[in-house]
Every structure is written in structure tokens, then in C-alpha cells.
Write a structure and sequence with these properties.
By secondary structure, this protein is an alpha/beta fold. The chain has 10 helices and 6 strands. The strands form 2 sheets. The chain has a 3-stranded parallel sheet with strand order 1-2-3, with helices on one face. Helix 8 crosses helix 9.
Length: 214
């Protein structure tokens, strides 16, 4: 299978149903909870309800509940993974797992790989903004640098945006490591070009956009 074809399938429930049918253990696509906990504590009070979009079989939400978060709702387009996670956490009432359609609640990076990506991504963002309470926080963890994501976020919804960065998971030791502190926002200009000036060209990071409604 060609890579381009596989990436286009990321927006299809059937792709994820098949994948999760053959995948037993938990998998964190980007970061685990412990790595992001300082930033989550900074923006999301422990008594707030939390919606995890595109939860998959990650144990990220379990980490949040173990840390004291009282209600974490998890949604995904794959009925296979939702049913598996419902069974796994049947004794944890703080964790709820619900299947929803990708047209409403997909994950942004997966949608950006498929057909009609910009339209579907904009629809998803508008729906997320709709369900957020005033001053609620949408935390987007993505590969997408500001020059790819900032206009989409700003054009789709009216929210205040802050940017943080964290190093990607790596198996080998690096000679050079990111020195930017996770909890310090990276200064953003209108085009997002300030990030490259600060972090250098093509930094090996995940971008975390904090989008605050209202």
C-alpha cells in the first residue's frame, strides 16, 4: 500500500476498526500524560469536565483520572476501540467512552490527511468550539507548525490562541535538545513566523495550541 493512500484512510472509520482489531496494547500517538501534565495543570482545572477527541486505545485519560480529574469523556470514530475501552474501564465511572462520527469529532491531523480536509477540519473545530463552555480550553497537540495550523484555527473560530512546544518521543539520545520550557508560551505573530526565528528551522517538536473560547 502506498503511503499517500494509507494516510487518506486516516479519516475512515473502517481503517481504524481494522487497525484496532489487530492491536492489543495501549498506544500514545504523540505524548503520554506524564509528559504533558505540567501544561494540563496550567490550563485545565482538576474539577473541569474534559473531552478527549480521537482517544484511540491510549491510556492518557487513565493518567488524568489517576491524577484526580473527575470526568473524562473520550470519543473516537472506531466502534471497535470504543467497545474495547468500555470493557477495559468498566470499573472506572470517571472514564466514559463514546463513538462519534468523524465529520463531527475527528482528530485534526487525521482529517488533514484525507479528502476535503480543510472543510472537514473547519467543521470539527466549529463543533469543538460549540461544546466548550465560555473560557473553556481546547488543547490541540499536533505535528502542524503555525504556518500550517494557525490560519485554520483562526479562520474557523474566534478564540484566543497560545502556543507551547514539547520534544517528540525519541529512542536515541540527541546531541542537541530543545531548551524551551514546556509551560512557557512561544511568542506568536500573525503568520507564525516568529516560532522559526525562536526555535530554528524544522524543530523536532510537537506543537500544542491552547485555544480559549470567548
Amino acid at each position: 500500500m502506498r503511503l499517500g493512500t494509507m494516510m487518506q484512510d486516516y479519516g475512515e472509520p473502517s481503517y481504524w476498526d481494522e487497525r484496532y482489531s489487530n492491536e492489543s496494547g495501549p498506544f500514545d500517538w504523540y505524548q503520554n500524560f506524564n509528559a504533558l501534565a505540567p501544561l494540563i495543570h496550567l490550563y485545565i482545572p482538576i474539577h473541569h469536565q474534559v473531552l478527549v477527541v480521537g482517544c484511540g486505545n491510549s491510556d492518557f485519560s487513565e493518567g488524568m483520572v489517576n491524577d484526580g480529574y473527575r470526568e473524562v469523556v473520550n470519543i473516537d470514530i472506531s466502534s471497535v476501540v470504543i467497545e474495547a475501552m468500555q470493557r477495559k474501564y468498566s470499573d472506572r465511572p470517571q472514564l466514559k467512552y463514546i463513538r462519534m462520527d468523524v465529520l463531527d469529532m475527528g482528530t485534526l491531523d487525521a482529517l488533514m490527511c484525507g479528502k476535503n480536509s480543510k472543510q472537514l477540519a473547519a467543521k470539527m473545530l466549529k463543533e469543538i468550539e460549540r461544546v466548550l463552555k465560555n473560557k473553556g480550553v481546547y488543547m490541540l497537540i499536533t505535528y502542524g507548525a503555525p504556518n500550517y495550523r494557525l490560519h485554520l484555527l483562526r479562520d474557523s473560530c474566534s478564540w484566543t490562541i497560545k502556543l507551547h512546544v514539547i520534544e517528540k518521543f525519541v529512542l536515541e539520545e540527541k546531541t542537541e535538545r530543545l531548551t524551551w520550557e514546556l509551560t512557557n508560551p512561544v511568542p506568536l505573530d500573525d503568520e507564525g513566523s516568529s516560532v522559526e526565528a525562536i526555535l530554528g528551522q524544522n524543530p523536532d517538536v510537537h506543537y500544542i495550541y491552547i485555544c480559549i473560547k470567548g
